[in-house]
Amino acid sequence: MSAMRDDEAHPEELEEEVRRLRERIAQLEAAELARRQVEEKFRGLLESAPDGLAIINAQGAIVLVNSQTERLFGYSREELLGQPVELLVPERLRGRHQLQRQRFFAEPTARPMGSQLELHGQRKDGREFPVEISLTPLQTETEGMLVTATIREISERKRAESELRRAEARYRTLVEQIPAVTFMAALDEGNNELYVSPQIEALLGFSQREWLENPILWHSQLHPEDRERWNVEFAPTCGTGTPFRSVYRFLARDGRVVWVHGEAKLVRDEAGRPSFLQGVAFDITGMKEAEMDLMALNQTLEQRVAERTREAEERAQQLAQSNAELEQFAYVASHDLQEPLRAVASFARLLARRCHDQLDDNGRDYIERIVGGAVRMQTLITDLLTYSRVGRQGQGFAMTDSAGVFADVCGNLRVAVEESGAQLTADPLPMVWADRTELVQLLQNLIGNALKFRSDQPLRIHIGCHQDGDRWLFSVRDNGIGIDPKYGEKIFLIFQRLHSRAKYPGTGIGLAICKKIVERHGGRIWVESTPNHGSTFHFTLSDEPEN
Ligand code: ADP
Q1: Phi-psi map region of 522: left, alpha, beta (phi>0 left; psi -120 to 50 alpha)
Q2: What is the pLDDT of residues 228-273, one digit of tens each?
Q3: Taking a C-beta distance cutoff of 8 angstroms, is the pair 433, 518 a contact?
Q4: Which residues lie closer than 8 Å to 440 by C-beta, 6 or more apart?
Q5: From the CA of 348, how far away is ligand 1's center (Å)?
Q6: Residues 388/334, Cβ–Cβ less than 8 Å
Q7: Kindly report the CA angle at 34 between 31 and 35, in degrees rounded to 5?
Q8: 374 Cα: distance to centroid of ligand 1 (angstroms)
């Protein structure tokens, strides 16, 4: 028909036909252009998405992908289009995936990112990788139901997550291995525990779970006597954030008292707002017990020392008392003995004189011995009296010029010194705190002994003196017969002598008096000597009154 019409067509009609066709072509071209523009926009949109995109039809065939998907899975667009989407799923999961896909198309609902747990994609080279996929159903007129899948590669995130988990495990191990309890507590009314490390069980016998499940356990286990103090001390930590640091007691499950050194601080969030409390508690029971044992020991020791001191003081007092009594007795005895003794001596002498002719030689010898004995006893008694008078008849203590004392002694002993031909010298002598009379007695006894116990060497006596801290150290050195060191102590005892009276006269009281005088002055006296090479007597005196 159209051929017939062509044959019969008029040129106007033909022209009209051509015009219509041209219009049609122009319309088609415009439509094509518009379509291309839309497609370009659409593609631009697809490509600008950060994730891989794939559109799948109801048969599970891929109808569209963006370049991110190509890159992600290692396939080119041509290799993917028209292929079942399972191509992108690991082989072991493909069966399951197909079922899930069919179920989804039967009941399509949007499924956002993160709503699936673990999903895996498979690259062209077979490598698997973790993905997250969101699905959006799309009803089209021409192609029916389509699904847009957004595919996000999450290896990096997974790695970060597992790194985080590993780090967390490391920190947890660290926290749970240290020999202390760590804890976190909320900042609410009761400071409820958010975390406590499992060491709590070793510390107090409650498991980590029990501790966390019972929000008041930590408070009820605080030692009743420490609760109030703890509340007071802890308040500023919650309030102003001052770090908490204190020692307090807990009661363990079995009632044991556990000493704890606790430290806690306030942790703030990034904006500086108080967030929670974090702290650590150390068991210091062992240390505390040792400390308490030590304190008890100290107390016992102190008590014992006090007792001993008291006993010593009592003994010293008793000793002083009995010494005083003895001195009194010696004084009285020697004083009172003198009288009858004088009577014995004088009547014996009278008897010797008057009855000289009536007595035979034996009788005369006996009487002579009686007289000798009485005289000796008199000397002893006089010495004893002198000894017991030390401290009774002195002038009292005063700053005393020892050089003057030495000069007096030289005067007193002038004859003896001259007779012996002794060379008597002295260092410069100081002022000392002393009883002058007694100091004369002391020096005279020592120099007297040096004169008495001389050897056949020309005698040299030297009085030395030098300062030693807050005291003066005196020495009286001679080059006489010397003393065997084993008698170094004995010679200071009353009536102790080393020689017969025939050789060296004396009663053995001189050094006992010296010792008594020096000790009254708070000093010490001792001798250093080498037999046959002389002796040095040392004594100390104070340079100022004693407190
Ligand atoms: P006495 O001089 O009466 O014997 P002392 O008490 O003064 O008593 O001395 C006791 C003893 O110490 C003396 O008998 C003597 O043996 C010894 N002695 C004292 N001074 C000296 C001295 N300078 N050299 C050697 N021996 C001494």
Answers
A1: left
A2: 998 898 888 888 888 999 999 999 999 999 999 999 998 888 888 8
A3: no
A4: 405, 408, 409, 412
A5: 32
A6: yes
A7: 85
A8: 23
